Amino acid sequence: MNLSKDAFDGHSQLGFGVYLLKDCYKQVYTALSLGIRLIDSAISYRNERECERAIQDFCRNSLDVKRDEIILVTKIPDSMQGFERTWKAILQSLRRVDRPFLDMVLIHSPKWPERRLESWRALVELKKEGIVREIGVSNYNVHHLEEIVASKLPLPAVNQIELSAFNSRIEIQEYCSNHGISLMAFSPLTIGQRLDDVRLLDLAAKYKRTPSQILLRYCLERNISPIFKSEKLDRIHENAGCMDFQMNSQDLAWMTTWDEEFVSKPSWNPIILP
């Protein structure tokens, strides 16, 4: 990786997502103050500029943290897929964040078979040019990744997918592990829909942690970077607490048996696209 060794280096770390946040600046700043160094945005979220402003201000006020230690992720939406559109989208994002390069760019989904590979070609070239530091994909299943293999292009550094203890995506996990692709998990907290699971509550009581902290820790222990989001500053504090404890191997193994292929929003599940 070209990023600082203190930034994303293929090892799991906690991330903070900013989808639909109303006060993104304050929430990102709070997350950074708690040790989170991965901020997950997208062009379609319309808050890249606000995220970068919070990052810059945090680094300015925290002299021991360098900008290269923080990763701001953005994503190419379906409407901007294709070689030329992707290139143009990146240049627009650069202007929004007012930096010479972007930390990490993902293709947001594999919706357009005829365009997604051209978008990937663009990202590969943009990385060669030093305009993007690291590149990846989102919502890619094994067959989508195999398409990149068949094209003889470099594989992505990252695949961001919906993943939790209730949707473990074992096949994708194994494929990515075997091909050196790091995993990020969005909706690792199931958008709150499984936080009252009795098994999860039992583990939370055992470790004296919240159900959310247990689910986030599960990902971290499996070398997956979980991305959580919250409007509430106290909830950001709470979730950041997943970084300061560990779970034993027996409990982690038990959690791997909870898989029920749970999808938080069945109406938007691009990983199943052809």
Automatic annotation (TrEMBL):
Pfam families: Aldo_ket_red (PF00248). The record marks K75 as: Lowers pKa of active site Tyr. The active site is at Y45 (proton donor). Residues 25-254 form the NADP-dependent oxidoreductase domain. PROSITE patterns: ALDOKETO_REDUCTASE_2. It comes from the Eukaryota. Substrate binds at H108. GO terms for molecular function: oxidoreductase activity. Coiled coil: none annotated. Keywords: Oxidoreductase. This is Xylose and arabinose reductase.
